[in-house]
Structure formats: C-alpha cells, structure tokens
Write a structure and sequence with these properties.
about 210 residues, alpha+beta, Rieske Iron-sulfur Protein, 2 domains, three-stranded antiparallel sheet, 3 helices, about 25% helix, globular, binds FE2/S2 (inorganic) cluster
C-alpha cells in the first residue's frame, strides 16, 4: 500500500508544482517563437527596402520609359517590360521598303490576328513610326526568345531579308515580327502597347491615344 494515497495533501502539492512548471514552459515557448517571428520580419524588411521605388514599380508591371536616340540605323536595343524582352529596332529605309515585298511568304501579312498588335500598329510596318519597330521578343510557338538576324543574307541564306530566327524549333519572323509560313509559330510576334512621350522617348506599356 502506498505511503501517499491519491488525493493526499502531498500528492496535491506535487500536482500543483507540475502545472506551475507546465505554465512556465508554455510561456517560454511562446516568448521564443515571438522572437523568432520578429527576427524573420527584421530580415525581410531590408530585402524589400533594398529595391528602389522604380524597381518595385517595374516588377509590378509599370510602364517603362526608353531613350531610343542612341539606336543606330540598322541596329536594335532590348528593353525589359513585365519581365519580357522588348526589341526596339531602328530599321533603315531599305529594311522598311523590304517589308512590303514578301507578304506572300507570311502567314498573316496584314495582321488580321488582332490580339497581336494594337490598332494603331495594324499597318504595313506594324509600327507608329515607319522605321521604329517595337516587338515583344518571345516566340509565339513555345515561348523561346528568337535571335536577331537583322541583316539580309549572312548565315541565314541568300533569300533572307532580315528578321529574327527562333533557335528552339526554327520559326522565322521578319523585321516587323510577322511570322513566315512554314514556321511552327502560328501567329505574329506581339507588338506591346506603347506611345511616344517625345521624338526619341518611348513609353512601353501605355497605349497611344487613338483619335475618335
Ligand atoms: S519556341 Fe520558337 S519555334 Fe518553338
């Protein structure tokens, strides 16, 4: 027979001490987890603060302003908008003239697929200014980024008049981003919304106001 029967004053005392220890343990655990959370927040805040306001705005898809004054004729610049490359090509007069000459080789020469360009670029050059093309550099087949092959002939063969070649599955596009027949890409490259703030200042991500 036990010397300390259940319910005796000694057992009651032991039970009270146990619950006091449990309470202290619980408070300690709550306090340390709160410190842990504060520590995580303290680490996270400097990371967010390290981005400048313009970087945060860009990351969220804000319009991107681009100075196009330094793009030599016959060359291009790649900007970034919404995490995508956007090509700005300064076409020479010869390049622009060439666009009208190979319509019969294109899948959609007249830009009938309206999702691929804004209305104000549904024209022979697919652009606002005849010589400046603005094109999202993502292939409409499976999303690779095509390679610029701006000059005629070269390693693309004698019939090549300048454009873009997708190395993933061989799609070909002209200097207006229109897809050549026989390419795996089904439709033309995208012309993003854009407008000119000044003669050489482009804003990508905002539409040109169209006259009613
Ligand atoms: S992703 Fe460009 S051809 Fe397939």
């Amino acid at each position: 027979m036990s010397d300390n029967p259940v319910g005796s004053p000694m057992n009651q005392d032991l039970a009270n001490r146990d619950s006091q220890v449990d309470l202290e343990k619980r408070n300690f655990l709550l306090a340390t987890s709160a410190v842990g959370a504060l520590g995580a927040a303290a680490v996270a805040v400097p990371f967010v603060k390290s981005m400048t306001p313009s970087e945060r705005a860009k990351a969220a898809g804000a319009p991107v302003e681009v100075d196009i004054s330094k793009i030599e004729p016959g060359t291009m610049l790649t900007a970034e908008w919404r995490g995508q490359p956007v090509w700005i090509i300064n076409r020479t007069d010869e390049m622009t003239a060439e666009l009208a000459k190979h319509n019969d080789q294109l899948s959609d020469p007249a830009c009938e697929v309206t999702s691929q360009q804004p209305n104000y670029c549904k024209n022979a050059n697919r652009s606002i200014k005849p010589n400046v093309a603005v094109i999202v550099g993502i292939c409409t087949h499976l999303g690779c980024s095509p390679t610029a092959k701006l000059q005629a002939n070269g390693d693309m063969g004698e019939s090549w008049t300048g454009g873009f070649f997708c190395p993933c599955h061989g799609s070909k596009f002209d200097l207006a981003g229109r897809v050549f027949k026989g390419s795996p890409a089904p439709i033309n490259l995208v012309v993003p919304p854009h407008k000119y703030l000044a003669d050489n200042t482009l804003l990508i991500g905002v539409d040109t106001e169209e006259k009613a």
